[in-house]
Amino acid sequence: MREILTYGKREFIVEIQFNKRKSFSITVYHDLRIVAKAPLGSSIKDIRKGLNKRASWISKQIDYFDQFQPLPPERKYISGETHYYLGRQYRLIINRGKTQRVKLIGGFFTMELPNPSDREKAKKIMQDWYSSHAKELLTKHLKRLLPEFTRLGVLEPEIRFRRMKKRWGSCSQKGIIILNTELVKVPIHCIDYVIIHELCHLKYLKHNKEFYHLMRKILPDWEKRKERLEKAVL
User: 135-174 burial, b if ≥16 CB within 10 A, otherwise e?
Assistant: First the structure.
């Protein structure tokens, strides 16, 4: 279902999703999509009321993400193109070999494949490498940052790792934190921002005043880190 939101002279197309949830939420994505999630049984009147209430915020988010358009093209997984690790670019070199592996050596991702032109296999090998390194790296940083929150009475959360296209991380009402394995491609200070953001949700689930007060207390420059993260090219 789609709804057209009018704000001044602007019109925004909003995708409406109905889920088993208690509250109404709106997300503006990097590709300028706007998705509103509403509880099952919500009326169109209530949805429109929620959209109009957040119209100014939606407009600002669209303007913010618009500066990063067009988004970079998807990787082709061929020799010569660049891939990121911890915010730095490394060129991919694919050689013919009996094994199927990739290593980060010097300034290059060096891959071996029986068939160097097999892009799907090359893609899988790269994604597996990122996933493996992400779990190790994110776990390490989480353990380093967690004590700051346990002192506030926060219990150690269950952590899950997943490759996600639209979110860097999430925290459920049950206190389960999911971290995007793609984070391994961005700078360390951005990784810390995402982890701290999700840990703050263990104390305050919503983005309310208390949440942002805690964010500023623990990470005073979080807004600069967030802006750097939004500019990340993956």
Answer: bebbeebbeebbeebeeeebeebebebeeeeeebbbbeee
